[in-house]
Design goal:
Elements (H helix, E strand, L loop, with lengths): L25 H13 L4 E5 L5 E2 L5 E2 L2 E8 L9 E5 L37 E5 L14 E2 L4 E2 L9 H14 L5 E7 L1 H12 L4 E7 L7 H16 L8 H4 L4 H15 L2 H7 L19 H13 L5 H13 L10 H4 L6 E7 L7 H13 L3 E7 L13 H17 L8
Parallel strand pairs: 5-6, 5-9, 9-10, 10-11, 11-12
Antiparallel strand pairs: 1-4, 2-3, 4-6, 7-8
Length: 416
């Protein structure tokens, strides 16, 4: 079995039966989440009332803050910066121990010494997106106007809002142009948005397992998750911070449903099949008789210990609203017209959340817009989550793309 631990990493281990209702150390984790929301265990860029973030919903968010981590050193001409954009439930702790879970960074396969995103060669930046819960301003942050958590008073945010906030962070760091923007899933959406919103500031882009808009099916799955959260009586209309409750059952169910979409039928069959969990015969009850049931309950119960329920609502809604073509008269190619950015688009054969057809649409639009683009469809049965796992072909492709982009931009000597 290969469960996902609470930091989003994969580890080979067995699973014991875990009920989604059984959240260990819930009070401790609630305190940790609350502390990280305002005082993160990472670097923080704070922006005052004179530097508002203009949101797509028409609200100027100010003051606000962005939590981020950096790895490596910025070179003299500031040309070696790589921005890593995290997925829906990720955060800035891409290559360091997570402060809440104690687990290693979530992208160990790609970021680290000797890996494609090598901090000995690049200055790597990863920020927590606006609306999340690990130190960037979001619904669990303190609203300066009330002294209480924002809750549902926090304005609706979008993927472009996230990218505008990141651009303000990059400005604060004194970087005019990023060597590369990298991301998978929601991180891939941010990557593509970066190339559209700031084409002259992105030398290269690695967009993985993503699309330029969310499908109706994906919106439907997100709505299922949001309704599960809001149906939990402990959600309290988003005011659970003030009332001392937490909708762990609803959020756990939302995570269970979402996690199914991250895998594939072949992967579930290979890992679990119809094998029983710690028994030979069924209990003839609604307990977790099957290993796959126990696995999903584990996913739900571990997730609620590190993530905020309201942030889950806000970030899934941001993904739903994402549609690059809509801002360019419905013509996706126009969004990439005459871009100088070098692209690499990657998909996985068993990813049914963001299937290869979505990536091909991106590639066709890039070609029509005159962009330089390479495309790889990697054969694997690991589903959407393959970009987070040890898939050697993907690692090799990422390394080769960054190498060629580095040569093209004079950052890496040819043959090095």
């Amino acid at each position: 079995m290969c469960p996902i631990d609470v930091a989003g990493n994969r580890e080979e281990t067995g699973l014991k039966m875990v009920k989604v209702q059984s959240v260990h150390s819930q009070a401790i984790h609630a305190e940790e989440r609350a502390h990280e929301a305002d005082h993160p265990s990472s670097q923080v860029a704070r922006f005052g009332a004179e530097q508002p973030l203009r949101l797509d919903c028409g609200v100027d968010l100010a003051p606000f803050q962005i939590a981020y981590q950096t790895y490596g050193e910025l070179n003299a001409d500031k040309s070696n910066a790589i921005l890593v954009c995290h997925a829906l439930t990720g955060d800035q702790h891409v290559a360091n121990i997570h402060p809440v879970t104690g687990k290693p960074g979530w992208w160990q396969t790609l970021v680290g010494p000797g890996k494609p995103l090598d901090p000995e060669r690049f200055f790597i930046i990863c920020s927590n997106v606006i609306g999340s819960c690990m130190g960037s301003t979001g619904p669990s942050s303190t609203n300066p106007a009330t002294g209480k958590p924002w809750g549902l008073d926090f304005p609706i945010i979008t993927i472009p809002d996230m990218v505008r906030a990141q651009a303000m962070l990059i400005d604060r760091l004194g970087i005019d142009r990023l060597f590369c923007v990298v991301g998978g899933s929601m991180g891939g959406m941010q990557t593509l948005q970066w190339t559209v919103a700031y084409p002259k500031r992105v030398a290269s882009a690695l967009a993985i397992a993503c699309s330029t808009r969310h499908s109706a099916q994906n919106i439907a799955f997100h709505e299922l998750g949001r309704q599960a959260v809001m149906a939990d009586p402990d959600w309290r209309h988003g005011r659970y911070y003030e009332e001392g409750t937490y909708p762990h059952r609803g959020l756990g169910v939302a995570r269970m449903a979402a996690h199914i979409t991250y895998l594939s039928d072949a992967a579930l069959h290979r890992k679990f099949g119809r094998r029983m969990q710690d028994r030979e015969l069924p209990t003839f009850s609604f307990d977790a008789d099957f290993q796959v049931e126990s696995y999903l309950r584990y996913q739900g119960s571990s997730f609620v210990e590190r993530f905020d329920a309201n942030s889950y609502l806000y970030l899934t809604r941001a993904m739903d609203y994402f549609d690059i073509a809509a801002d360019h008269n419905g013509v996706l190619a126009e969004a990439f017209r005459d871009t100088a950015t070098r692209f690499c688009v990657v998909s996985f054969t068993s990813d049914w959340l963001f299937p290869t057809s979505e990536s091909r649409n991106v590639v066709h639009a890039l070609n029509a817009g005159g962009a330089r683009v390479s495309f790889a469809e990697i054969e694997t049965d690991r589903g959407h989550d393959a970009f987070l796992l040890d898939v050697p072909e993907f690692v090799d492709i990422a390394r080769a793309f960054l190498q060629s982009a580095g040569v093209a931009h004079g950052l890496v000597a040819k043959g090095k």
